[in-house]
Amino acid sequence: ESRLCLTHLLLQRRPPFTSKPRWRSCTQLPKNMEGPKLESMEQKETSFSFEEQFSHKKEIEFEGGFLEVVDVSPEDPKTEVPVVLAPGWAESPEVMKGSIETLFDERRRVISVDHVRTGGEVESPEYPKAEFRKAMGLLTATKEIEKFDIVAHSEGGINSLIAASIAPEKVRNI
Questions:
Q1: Over 50: is that where the pLDDT of 122 sits?
Q2: Nearest-CA neighbor of 82 among 66, 69, 94, 92?
Q3: DSSP-derived secondary structure for 79-98
Q4: For residues 38 and 86, what is the distance between their CA atoms, to the nearest angstrom?
Q5: How far, in Å, CA of 50 to CA of 100, rounded?
Q6: pLDDT tens-place string over residues 23-57
Q7: pLDDT: is 92 or 40 the higher one?
Q8: Interatomic CA distance for residues 115 and 125, integer angstroms
Q9: Interacting residues of 150 by C-beta distance below 8 A, sequence separation 6+
Q10: CA distance 15 to 139
């Protein structure tokens, strides 16, 4: 079965990227990290419109601040694997709303995060503190999800790569 690259779907310009990147695991996801209570596909209420779902953000506590999570799912999703849309520097899910709606129209569940920009002590010997905190935010927002695909913009790409290096078993495609 042929799969269409999500970036190709969004941009409609380039052919799909086919080679798989190799990740090395550098850090373990903390065992005591509290994740959101995002519902599984069977539990998620999907009878709401895109606009209703998009405007209903979940707020979860994270590293001394709050993380806003947008989670939209069509009534009949194409796959169990959601797409995590990682916004760039100073961006929020609102900036990515058009892309989120495009993926929703293509019957994909989409999760996007408005990153915590300050607060909290997150230490990493390998990564800058702010980037590591945002990567941990992505992993916190997807803690209850077994596997996901990532579409990222700008700094969101850095955060996504860090998240994938921390938990490579969770990331199917970037």
A1: yes
A2: 69
A3: -SS-EEEE--TT--TTTTHH
A4: 17
A5: 9
A6: 333 333 444 444 444 444 444 444 699 999 999 99
A7: 92
A8: 21
A9: 83, 84, 85, 86, 138, 160, 163, 164, 171, 173, 174
A10: 29
Compare 80 and 44 and report the one with higher pLDDT. Answer: 80
Q: Which residue has the tokens 């995002």?
A: 38
Joined tokens for residue 90 = 């100073």
* pLDDT digits 0-9 by tens, 132-173: 888 988 999 999 999 999 999 999 999 999 999 999 999 999
- Token reading at 64: 């001394």
Strand order in the sheet with 58-62: 58-62, 65-72, 110-114, 83-86, 148-152, 171-173
93 is written with which tokens? 């899910």
Q: What is the dihedral of CA 136, 137, 140, 145, to 10 degrees?
A: -100
H-type alpha helices, the chain: 6-11, 50-55, 97-105, 129-141, 155-166
